[in-house]
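Pasting two entries for a bug report.
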Amino acid sequence: MTFSIVARDPGTGQLAVGAVTAMVGVGKLVPHARARVGAVATQATINPYLAYHGLQHLDRGDDALTALQRVLDADPGRDFRQCGIVDAAGGVAAWTGDQTPDWSGHITDSDVTVQGNRLVGRETLEAVLSTFHQRDDLDLAWRILEALQAGEETGADKKGALSGAITVVDTEDYALWDVRVDHADDPVAGLRSLMEEFEEQLLPQVRKLSTRDDQEGPLAREQGASIA
């Protein structure tokens, strides 16, 4: 039982999913993203194939709305599902089945969709969306974090929160950011702490990894130069 945000940064083309839930390990099942293809959150009574097949449809050229309709048409359990999709062009689509726990719903906007179930009310999603738009001075990962924090401050999930995750993809098959708190009293605070450490210690290394167009990669060249 979760609230989440799926978004695209039109300036960089980065795609992201952020989620917080009352169960453990939200990062395992809810967030899915593929660079320059799209991003998906699948939640409530989770069907991971809404994301797997949805991303396949996007990769074949469908927009978010068409991809979502295709996966829902193939799912007899759609009434128990919740899903949000953003495609690489910024198109959005979302679904909330009528058998998802109250309060449940979604809000879509250009380049972003927010969705949640078993929430205190619509105000959680409104806070997430509003903060996301207000913090456009930040990189996408940090905008997602601030949006999740705003949602938590409304009371969010009626049963509290245990886990949180933020995934951001840029140009490569591997994620630029993949930060998860699997079990904590305050998972958003845990995400913030991890992201600060990640940004200082790991992100510079990720940016120097091999790429599709540069198989050697800056990190290997640096290491070779230091040995020489």
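Entry 2 (this is the one that rendered wrong in the viewer):
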Amino acid sequence: MSHALSQEVSYRLLKYLADHPDATQRQLAIEVGISLGKANYCLRALMEKGLLKVRNFGNSRRKTAYMYVLTPKGIEEKVNITYAFLRRKISEYDLLSKEIEKLTDEVRALSSETGPA
């Protein structure tokens, strides 16, 4: 993905659209935590990369209603991004666990130095 479209934003967009293909850009922006303008920009970037197709609801009362459909390439990218996102989160978890363990040992050591009150 491009620098402007981070892996995390791509992950969140593709994941949300896979589950909510009829979401509006406003709903997408709110759920992903980005501005409406950025949602529009990101959707266009995903379409240009061939990861997403837009279909118009022909029988909708709202003639501007769209459905966002992940292409086979988009589904593959979603899997790859999900895997990379998971690896990063596991790494963050491991680092955080080590830091918690170190701080817990430090607190125990300090507590034993001061003794009971």
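Dev reply: Rendering is fixed now. As a check, the viewer should reflect this: Strands lie at 52-56, 66-70.
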